[in-house]
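Page header: ASSEMBLY MODEL / two components / 631 residues total.
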Amino acid sequence: MSWDLLASTLRVSTPLIFAALGGMFSERSGVINIALEGLMLLGAFAAAVGTLVTHSPWLGSAFGMAAGVLLAAVYALFVIRLRANQIVAGTAINMLAMGLTPFICKILYDVTGSTPSIPLHERFHSVPLYLCWALVAACVLWMRYTPTGLWVSFAGEHPEALDAAGIRVNRVRWMAVLVSGALAGMGGASLSIFLSSSFSRDMTAGRGFMALAALIFGKWKPLPTALACLLFGFADAVQIRLQGVAVWGGHPIPVEFIQILPYLVTILVLAGFVGRSHPPKASGTVFEKG
Amino acid sequence: MRKLLQPVLAVAFGLALGLGVTRLAGENPWHVLQILWKSAFGSRYDFGMTLFYSTPLIFTGLAVAVPFQAGLFNIGAEGQLTLGALATAAVGAVWPGLPWPLAPALAILAAVTAGTVWGAIPGWLRAKRGSHEVINTIMLNFIAAGLASYVTLYLLKNPDTQNPETRPIGAGYLISQFGIFGGAPVSVALPLAILAAVLVWIFLWRTVIGFEMRAVGQNESAARAAGINTGRMTIIALAVGGGLAGLVGVGEVLGNAGKFRLGFSPEYGFIGIAVALLGRNQPAGVVAAALLFGALHKGTADLDFETEHVTRELSLVLQALIILSVSADGLWSWMKKRSAA
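Prediction written out in full:
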């Protein structure tokens, strides 16, 4: 165990934390967000393109967030307005992002694999890492002490009560889904312009789902969710580092076993073998005013 | 009639929207559509490849449709088919000398068993521990990918190649391919898939368990009140779904590659969700939808070199748009209201 490992754990957790916090808003408001993966992917792509165009990682991440919001708006339109099933529409959004990114990449750069690489001085070096923890603190305060935070929770737990108080449930859900698009987009941006030097095809590689797992592991609360992301990030950092090095009883521990650990733990947690985790009561259901 | 019209309209709408996107890339959508058609149905070989891609989609479509009839979402077909294919190849690699009829029979049994187990796990977790099958099946997809990569790279590695694949299976395992498709690997797996669809129909609509399962899907508390063991139905539904997904291994390993190749599936499991949805979770609908998505997959394969700017990833965009337009319940009731007014 070294400082080095700690540093790389913090770095690789960054995209997960952004995306998981994004997922938190959507899910706490009652909208399941399987689409995190696609939102991240499009965000990563748009951020890389934005940085290449503007030469500024700040503007680049604004591009990433805007792309996330845009795709999240499509998702919200289908699941809130058009009452599409959230799992099905989420899967479709993921496919859409997986198809659109190489498609647009080909139009812009004439290759499907990846964007041109972004010069070192135009990339983020540590900003997203600090930013995500500031965001964790902000989310803790937001969910607990502001009316809007309360609305989000009520939209997911007792939408009827929120409606009776004169707040429009579906408007709260719309906002929550858009915020989740922005944050997942930022998570993608931190992949393409912070952790790597370009966008490459399918670079999220399941991190959206991992963020979703962290969210459940963290019982839909900001701080525990961020800590769960750290745990997943740690497993990731370890497997990069310990390829063939970790030894147990004279044999190297295969990387694959370290990789599947976070997913296994998530299943055990969900099943109540290690603590218990309950989703918001009204999650996945359409709200219609009586 | 309206039941049939709605999916057809949704497909037309999704296709039109997707082809409209190619306009933005500077291509003529009509030209793109012609390429799609020619590449999917232009020759016996092309049509054979369409059928080859459709076969696993029939299995994964059924794998999603059966649990759906019980009110459950199987997002785990990808993991189930991975382990099914792996088990098929493992049997063939460990006992390469088995003779013909016994060998494929054993391998098919292994495919079904692996898939069934991988489907039963989230079923059991849902029934006994109350945890949601959607998350669990997604997690199990990752775990299956990890297990498959471990077994492929450490236990059954093919020593003759750098590719991540297992040792080849024995010759007695190979199932026959149809000769009329100009070399496309259309094997006995295709009639097997259609047989599976027929059996699923009989199971769901002509057996007591199938009836009880659909009752749970329509109204769980009413089913429980009627004395149906809902937990048991949950486990059976996901186990059957998993077994069906596992059968993807038959066409891929015994009918095509002769070994397990890591990453052989272009997300057959996820496309299966679209297939089931478009096919309205009915076996016949699933077969029809699998043909459509198989044709889309094959049709877009040639876009890379037939056009200047459009790539084969268009298939993902088209599939996504079709799913979205099928899934939007509100869109259809809104249109109905408009036409009634």
